[in-house]
Amino acid sequence: MAEGGSRTEVKFLRKEQATQLEECTRAHNLYRQSIDLDHVPSEDWITQLENVTATYYPFIDVSR
Asked: Which domain of life is it from (predicted)?
């Protein structure tokens, strides 16, 4: 966030970030449901992604 960019750009990038998080979550869930897995994949990576996103949203929202 050192280079703030325009408010329009920041708003666009926040929306893109939210969309990417949704797509990652959807892909992960589809993968888990669509394959006969002997090993169920960990959800740690998606939880970490959600936590990082939640950490940065307040910084993005302040600059809007």
From this structure: Eukaryota
